Amino acid sequence: MKAHRLVAACTSVALAGLMSVTSTAPAASFEKPAVALGKYVALGDSYTSAPLVPLPELLSLGCLRSGSNYPKQVAALLRVSSFTDVSCGGADTTHMTQPQSTALGTFPPQFNALTADTDLVTLGIGGNDFGVFGDIIDTCPGLRASDPAGSPCKTHFTVGGVDTLAAKIAQTQVRITEVVKGIKLRSPRASVVLVGYPKIAPSTGVCPDVLPFADGDYAYLYSIEQKLNLAVENAAAAGGAVYVDTFGPSTGHDACAPDGQAWIQGKDLNLLRAASYHPRYEGQAGVASLTYKKIVGLQGTVTPAEQAQWAAEARELSRQAAKTTSNPAVKAHLDRLRTGAQR
To answer: For residue 59, what pLDDT is reported?
Structure first.
């Protein structure tokens, strides 16, 4: 999913204020010993790179990678000997083989990180293809006022009885299938793991102050994300890859969930937590846990104790990031960024 355009344009300001903060949250521990793996490469979009999740990976700049994103946590859990994270905010399947331009520079194709001796590849991709998530975020909140109790977003994207977003997702499945083939061609001995998207909207209920969609469009958003995850799962099956379901296990952790339980940030950008409509630290930790468990053969569930641990780690990381705002110049820049993002 694409990071907010203003974040992409102005993140260098926020990063400048965070230069002195470099620690990463501790990875969760499990009873089963970690799997011994050598070289791990992480590919993906902003749901993988985790924009504004404390603390930033300073060298990635325009790709908005977090030092606490799920690939880094998975790498720590697996104790890999070599790890490369080339995930990038705004990436789609074309950026696996083509350069990606960002507000802070151009990044090489993500496939450049793959080598013949790569042992593990994780991939989180699909939401940006054909602008599906971006179209929803840019269009649907503005339609709420026209029919607050209805489903104007669904109506908007249904043309001649055809759900145009669902049609785009069908095309995305074909693209992801080709990406899996490309990974296997370049890294034939690697285990390939496709990571799905966690729930953004709840299965029931609404929270318009957090997700400003018309009441009836919550079900539409939910169904579109279901279709996207099914496309990712089908592509994994077609290519002989492993699929990690994060949609089901994230039930109760959507954007409408209470603070500490929510894995997804709502409409309001939070410079110390996450970009708008993107995973918080808790979401990255949850996806890391589910990915690790899938790899080592553990049950893909989330326990209350794990969630409490992730919430505590999120608070500590936000506290560390907040130290930078003691600099008046940095605070002024961050306040301008926050104000602009809310317009």
So the answer is: 79
Positions in the chain whose pLDDT score sits under 70:
1-36, 324-343
Classify burial at 34, counting beta carbons within 10 Å of its beta carbon; exposed 0-12, middle 13-18, buried 19 or more: middle
Helix (H, G, I), strand (E, B) or coil at 235: helix
Give the pLDDT confidence score for residue 327 in this predicted structure.
Answer: 56
**pLDDT value at residue 270:** 93
Residue spans of alpha helices (H) in 157-202:
164-186
Rounded Cα–Cα distance for residues 179 and 25 (Å) = 31
Name the β-bridge partners of 192.
121
The dihedral over CA atoms of 280, 281, 282, 286, expressed in degrees to the nearest 10, equals 110
Q: Which two tokens stand for residue 244?
A: 């990690």
Domains and CATH numbers, the chain: 5-341 (3.40.50.1110)
**What is the C-alpha to C-alpha distance for residues 69 and 301, in angstroms, rounded to an integer?**
19
pTM of the model as a whole: 0.88
